[in-house]
Amino acid sequence: MKGVIYTETVVFAPPEQFAADAPYQLAIVTLENGKRLTARISGDRVSIGDAVELAETRNGISFFKKA
Amino acid sequence: MREVAVIGIGKTAFGAFADRDLRSLAVEAGLACLADANVSPSKIEAFYLGNFAGPSFVGQNHLAPYIAGAMGVEHVPCTRFEAACASSGSAFFHAVSSVAAGMYDLVLVGGVEKMTSQTTPKVTEILAGAGDMMGEGRAGATFPALFAMIARRHMYQYGTTREQLAAVAVKNHANGAKNPQAHMRKVITMEQALNGKPIADPLTVYDCSLVSDGAAAVLICPLEQASEFTSKPVRVRGIAQTSDHVALDEKDDITTFRAVKEAAQKAYKMAGVSAGDIQFAELHDCFTIAEIVATEDLGFVEKGLGGPYVLEGKTCLRGERPINTSGGLKSKGHPVGATGVAQICDVAMQIRGDAGERQVARHELGLAQNLGGSGATAVVTILGAA
Predict the structure, then answer these.
(1) Hey, what CATH topology would domain B4-118+212-234 get?
(2) For A47-54, what is the mean pLDDT?
(3) What residues of chain B, 102 to 161, have a C-beta less than 8 Å from chain A?
(4) Which helix (H) or strand (E) holds B369?
(5) What backbone torsions phi and psi does residue B364 show, to the nearest 5 degrees?
(6) Complex ipTM more than 0.90, yes or no
(7) Phi and psi dihedrals of B102, rounded to 5?
(8) Which pTM value belongs to this model?
């Protein structure tokens, strides 16, 4: 699954259940079919317009990385 | 349809009150409101309550009759409205609708939230429940994160700057410092606002509204009966509530709140006014970017120009259109379920000419905009002198 970063942030103040993950990058990815998905970013930090691809899915969360 | 007036207002101070429980806050605001209008609790025909998450924050359900009974409002319909941070805006909208329709004459509308008995990570988790917990919430989106993503996209599309975001916080703190009921009565500098602790990039702690305890209430009746209760009735000129997708990633363009735009157009039409006629406003600045987007969606400025508008001082207390003279959610505080009705109180106070050193010069027509979640509920109310 591939897409382009529509918007992103880095979360420094997480909700209780993700305390161990912070800081983590979160993004809305525009997928090739035009739909958007809120996902985590693994690896290098991404910016709006960057091409990304699905790296893995863990606990129902999609992790994308720079393509 | 009958015209409706606000004839009484009452608020608690907003803050972190370790010794106060949810009900005592709501009762204090309700009784202050009834005293303001010199109306006995036994005369109230219905009680509409806005509350976002009492069951999660303090473990109490069935809140509307629980609070009404303690105020002496008994044997009438008492109902809780939940629409995230627009809970009491929604309660007010439905209360006005019922009085306009002729169902009741005297209706009390309250809003309350007791948030500070939970830790910040727990509060963050409870608030995240106003988003889509099967989608964005599962991925780890907090509300600061959702608005940070809105800010990031607004910066990308319109060139909005960190300094423009910070200008919202500096302005609202300057106003809130003058409000005896505000949670954080502290002036902040641009330098402080720009260098705050990061919460969700690009937002710092100074871009985020406060976690507060507090309550507010208003009393409404048909306009034609208002003079029996007060010499300064405030007329509800226009009001609308609309909705949109809950999940941010289901919205076509996240730099605008479609629900706010649509509610504003309906409210302007009902009032027979246009955006340019609005003299001052209380806007839902849950995050600094939200106030900037709201000024655009309400038509105060063209799309994309909300940043320069605040930085140039147009919306400060002595500017051409003062915004958030109460201090807004940023400085006054944001007990989420109380916010919508508190905004109505603040606009009404200005229209009556009772805002003291925060009084604006032109105060015949004001607007309140209350937002739920990342824009899934919007309530826009236009109030005017009777």
Answers:
(1) Peroxisomal Thiolase; Chain A, domain 1 (3.40.47)
(2) 98
(3) 119-122, 124-125, 128, 135-136, 138-142, 144-145, 148-150, 152-153, 156
(4) strand B365-372
(5) -95, -20
(6) yes
(7) 90, 10
(8) 0.98
